[in-house]
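To close the chapter, one final illustration. This time we ask the reader to focus less on the individual chains and more on the assembly as a whole: which components sit near each other, and how the overall shape emerges from the parts.
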Amino acid sequence: MMADRPAGNNKPALELHVPEPRFRPGDEADFSHLEIPPAGQQQRPDEACEARETMALCHDLIRVLGEDDQAHGPWDPKLDPETLRTMLGHMAQVRAFDERMFRGQRQGKTSFYMKCTGEEATSVAAAMALASDDMVFPSYRQQGILITRGYPMVEMINQIYSNKADKLKGRQLPIMYSSREHSFFSISGNLATQCPQAVGWAMASAIKGDTRIAASWVGEGSTAEGDFHSACTFATVYNAPVILNVINNQWAISSFSGFAGAERTTFAARAVGYGLAGLRVDGNDALAVYAAQRWAANRARANAGPTLIEYFTYRAEGHSTSDDPSAYRSAQERSEWPLGDPIMRLKNHLIALGEWDEERHAAMDLVAAERVKEATKEAEKNGILGHGLHHPFRTMFQDVYEELPWHLEEQAKQARREREIKWPGVEPWAM
Ligand SMILES: Cc1ncc(C[n+]2csc(CCOP(=O)(O)OP(=O)(O)O)c2C)c(N)n1
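The assembled structure is written out below.
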């Protein structure tokens, strides 16, 4: 016996729901539908709690900085003013870096750049809550980690220009950095691959009996990839010492977060289904970001389990220099975004504490811009896009095989012959 389909014509035909963003170009943006709880109201469970005890926090929003610019509640990390100023300084440095690199792309010095405007706290404050040698597996919008860890800006720019000093020899897309010395895993353009890699690295760290943990960052759009779900499964099965950060900046290029499932539930809530601890955090509140990352780091270090953290934020600028967001979203979204600007919020907090003022802030911005300018000048000596100062062509055949296979040997020879015909007398560094 099997059930019958309902008879008659008065039953609705099955239909699919196709997500549609609330606002398109020309629309007024109104975010009043978002539930933004007051700062300080969220419980802070013990770091070693059962994963299911975080269920409510997966649907809430952990916030510390209130409308009054003061820190509130049990998640206040109680950082001293010097640390807060350092945090502010790193965020301002990231923004200054982004501004100049964006302009550099428009001036033709590089082919590509990606800003993280409005998301600075999600990398800077998170990186500050980790140990400097905890292994990070970032996406392409976490330049804040490198700035926080003191990676030289001139090296970042050499990579962006793919010039002769680029440590990655022009083999990576601009901004896809890598630094073993800074425990910063090579960025991959293949979205979400960093998630299982972080879990695997964390498992290896535990197998070795080490104390270093791993953390990955992924965009909310990329959580729709299978790799993210494999990472969650492995993390929970082996209780890996890992933090899976999801940056929900509302947009995945021109696809809004609804296409990754945001209309149904939160990204943090994915955690509970897997048996991971989950936290949903105001990503524009640097103190909340720090506190959440610290909670998860302590939990991982104590073998109490992995954590998935959703940072609720907004991608204030285009996806990359190749994108024009005015083609698909309301221009008002940025100014109407209810969680404000992470740099302004931390700045106002420091001012409210009597530990900062407008003059010092303006001076700090000037210094940040000057540092980038100096680093840019230094990097330009090593070449910019199209000026020929790049790694020798022959290096494209190196470092992959211990012994070059015959067909690549032939291609290398052919490339050399063509160069001699096309560019006779070219400097040897370009060979
Ligand atoms: C596996 C894979 N699919 C698609 C792309 C193309 N792509 C690059 S970035 C991007 C959007 C990702 O959005 P999200 O994960 O939300 O991160 P965000 O850019 O917002 O930081 C897409 C679709 C890719 N690089 N890799």
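Residues 141, 189-191, 219-222, 225, 247, 249, 251-253, 315, 319 surround thiamine diphosphate (CB under 6 Å). The radius of gyration is 24 Å. With these observations in hand, you are ready for the problems at the end of the chapter.
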